[in-house]
């Protein structure tokens, strides 16, 4: 499984970005998907996760109400819509795939990781 994240960039505080993660796998719908991020000098942290069907989602408290995770199994793609961005959202964002039904916040449960896309929010 290969994951290709895209959509990062530079945006002003209060702005929006939509990240995409395309998976090269025929059985994409068997995978729960997640987004994590890592800021300079900090550990990687959970952002959002979605079940294989899209019916269940989890969010970190820091992004709840501002970020939305979704997926399109026909396109083998998961999305992260990020609104009301803050400077503290600046990080490299990674998508990950876990061969399981339910979403999880645990990074060790994910089997595959993408290469990351940089998000920079200016104040």
The unreliable regions are none
Write down how many β-strands occur, each being a DSSP E stretch of 2 or more residues. 11
Q: Give the class from helix and strand content and strand pairing.
A: mainly beta
Report the β-strand fraction as a percent range. Answer: over 45%
Radius of gyration, Cα only, in angstroms? 13 Å
Instruction: Using the alpha-carbon principal axes, give the shape.
Output: globular
State the share of residues found in helices, binned by percent.
Answer: under 10%
End-to-end C-alpha gap = 37 Å
Please count the helical segments.
0
Query: What is the mean pLDDT?
Result: 96
The ordered H/E elements are EEEEEEEEEEE
Oligomer: single chain
Q: Report on the biggest sheet.
A: 7 strands, mixed
Report on this structure.
The chain has 123 residues and is mainly β. It contains no helices and eleven strands. Strands 2, 4, 5, 6, 9, 10 and 11 form a seven-stranded mixed β-sheet that branches. The termini are far apart.
């Amino acid at each position: 499984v290969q994951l290709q994240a895209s959509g990062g960039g530079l945006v002003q505080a209060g702005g929006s970005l939509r990240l995409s993660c395309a998976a090269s796998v025929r059985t994409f719908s068997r995978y729960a998907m997640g987004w994590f991020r890592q800021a300079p000098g900090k550990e990687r942290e959970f952002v959002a996760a979605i079940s294989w069907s899209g019916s269940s989602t989890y969010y970190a408290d820091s992004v709840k109400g501002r970020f939305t995770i979704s997926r399109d199994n026909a396109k083998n793609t998961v999305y992260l819509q990020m609104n009301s961005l803050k400077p503290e959202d600046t990080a490299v964002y990674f998508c990950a795939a876990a061969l399981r039904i339910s979403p999880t916040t645990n990074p060790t449960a994910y089997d595959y990781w993408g290469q990351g896309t940089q998000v920079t929010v200016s104040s």
